[in-house]
Amino acid sequence: MDKLKDWNEFEIGSVLFPFKKGVDGVMELYKCERTYSGDSSFTDSVAHWRVEKPVHNSEVCINCFNCWVFCPDSAILTSNDKLSGVDYVHCKGCGVCVDVCPTNPKSLLMFNDHKDNEEALREWPEKQPKKREV
Ligand code: SF4
Ligand code: SF4
Q1: Fewest beta carbons less than 10 Å away: which of 30, 86, 112, 123?
Q2: CATH class of 46-123
């Protein structure tokens, strides 16, 4: 795959048109069937300024898809009806997916963008005891 253009390689004020053809009916198509233009936020990387990234732990994930529904960038990936990871080319590191994850411990946690995912998984916290209501 060719190197994706970074966000700061566009001229200031650039307008990116996402599709090669018109947008009529495009939402009814699967992503793979859409004709994205070469310079769009789908085909180019728009996440290089991220400071923290979410890491997914499939060992605790219950595949509820809350994160998939709430991610504002459609950056949660799925495969065979299961959550399969995060699209780091588009994820902005907002942390919404972590906030809405209901498991204990959470199945998505934020780590420094430079941290290796395998290392992050080794540091995963243990299940926390429930706090008693008083
Ligand atoms: S951090 Fe934000 S952009 Fe990235 S996957 Fe989570 S919700 Fe989506
Ligand atoms: S919200 Fe958490 S438990 Fe639900 S699918 Fe996403 S990572 Fe898995």
Answers
A1: 30
A2: alpha beta
Residue nearest atom 1 of ligand 2, based on CA coordinates: 101
pLDDT of residue 11 exceeding 90:
no
Ligand having the closest approach to the CA of 91 = 1
Q: Where are the domains of the chain?
A: 1-44, 46-123
Question: Measured between alpha carbons, how far is 27 from 118 in angstroms, rounded to an integer?
Answer: 36
For the question of whether the overall pTM of this predicted structure is more than 0.85, the answer is no
Does position 86 have pLDDT exceeding 70, yes or no? yes
Is 100 close to ligand 1, i.e. is its CB under 6 Å away? no
Ligand 1: which residue has its CA nearest to atom 4?
91
Q: How far apart are CA 112 and CA 118, in angstroms?
A: 13
Q: How far, in Å, is the centroid of ligand 2 from the Cα of 98?
A: 8
- What is the structure's pLDDT at 60? 97
